[in-house]
Amino acid sequence: MRDWQWRRRFLCVAWMSFVLPGCALIHHNGTPYTEIAPEQINLASDIHLAHDGWPAARWWTRYRDAQLDALIDQALANAPTMVIARTRVSQARSDVALVAAGSNLQMAALASLDRTRVSANGFLGPFAKNEPELGLTGPWYTEGIVGLGASLDIDLWGKQRAQIAASLGVSNARLAEASAVELEISTDVATLYYGIQTTYQLIDLLNESDEVAVFAVQAHEARAGRGLEARTQLEEARAQQLGIERQIVAAQGQIKQLRESLRALVGAGPDGLAAIEPVALPGSQAALPVTLSYELLARRPDLQAMRWYVEASFSRIDAAKAAFYPSFDIKAFFGFNALHLADLFTHASQQINLIPGLTLPIFDGGRLNANLSGVREGSNLLIEQYNQAVLNAVRDVAQTGSRLQALDAETGLQKQRIESVAFARDSVEAHYQRGLTNRLAALEARQPVIAEQVALLTLNGQILSQEIALTKALGGGYRADAPVELKPR
Q: What is the rounded CA–CA span in Å between residue 117 and residue 74?
């Protein structure tokens, strides 16, 4: 008996030694691409602003504008794109649970009823006879099976663990993408809101200019009516007034367009957006960190999402490699099985099955290698897309920071220009107060100042827009809890 046991063990080892080398071999693993170098994640030394630092989580509250706070909170709660992002997060979590469930014990209740006529010429031919004394009641039988079936995959090579890790990576990426959508929505709302506020102030300046133009038309009309001057000056004044009124109409139309864009972004109905009251534009509060380096990767939710997608691709590579190795599973059944329903729940009809299984890939026509090659190339593509996204992020910060520098300088010069033009206006006003010139000349002297104030307002609006863009480029206060380390495999 012992000789037979040793012989059986020898045959088993010999069989494994023969079969295992015959499993499919990895031929197309490929070469992983590398992550972007740290020195490429930085700014030029000549780009700097008056303030240093990163944005706060609720960065928009620094403007101390209750209207803006309410609009952004409404958008983050109701915007369709925000709802879509949250749904994608929930979907990814369900995918993780689904993949993880596949590695757990599976159990199901089984029951079947089979009414069969046995063939007399088949391998069950004797059962086609009707000889009750021999236990044969053919040719018709009603077979019943009822019980519990279970199966368990043994994850020896980590394939299932890698698939779960890949699903977790996608889930984490979706969470970061939701933060990126929040940042996109909040910055878009702020940009539209301050576009409306800038246009409100533009209309105020244009109305002031229109008052001067209306008085000029009346004055020239009176003079022309008395024959004191040619009608040409009247028509020139009227043309100037009409031009100003055209700008007012265009500005009012722009407010309507901006408001509709804001309403669609917030996800409000026709009456779901509160009236936006004019407020003064806030002063510049833009800040730029001294260095970016890897800190930018943790601060930008879109980059963090791409890092998680890359990390998930590495786990898919691990799963593709594990598919080359043998897979083990165990199946089991406990229940009752009988050819006659009357005997189904008797002790003699009990059935127990315990089936360990081994699946060894030997020849697959290149399917496993093609799958591994495809997964590797997909991972490399994600790495290159990520590297390009990092470069684009650094470019965005650099371009926005340098633009803000230039706008700050332009604003300083424009303020000096207004002071110079205002001096001429004040001089004419003083002459008018002393009776040395007429009221028309005093009012028309205001027009150049108003024009320069419009130019300054335009610069201030651009500064706000670029400041918000810089906040977006720096991640808007987002901070990853645990930065992902890319380690290609």
A: 70
Taking the C-alpha atoms of residue 457 and residue 450, their distance in angstroms, rounded to an integer, is 10
Are the CB atoms for 307 and 390 separated by under 8 Å? no
How many other C-beta atoms can be found within 10 angstroms of the C-beta atom of residue 335?
A: 20
Alpha carbons 365 and 368: distance in angstroms, whole number: 8
**Do residues 275 and 256 touch, judged by C-beta distance below 8 A?**
no
User: How many CA atoms are closer than 13 Å to the CA of 121, on its beta-carbon side?
Assistant: 0
Cβ atoms 421, 450 nearer than 8 A: no
pLDDT digits (tens, 9 = 90+) for 7-53: 555 445 444 544 444 456 676 677 777 877 777 777 777 676 666 78
* Cα–Cα dist 355/394, whole Å: 58
Its pTM stands at: 0.81
Nearest to 238 by CA among 271, 260, 214: 214
- d(Cα 265, Cα 250) in Å, to the nearest integer? 22
pLDDT digits (tens, 9 = 90+) for 260-296: 999 999 888 878 888 999 999 998 878 888 778 778 8
Q: What percent of the chain has pLDDT over 70?
A: 91
Domains and CATH numbers, the chain: 21-103+158-202+273-323+370-473 (1.20.1600.10), 108-154+327-360 (2.20.200.10)
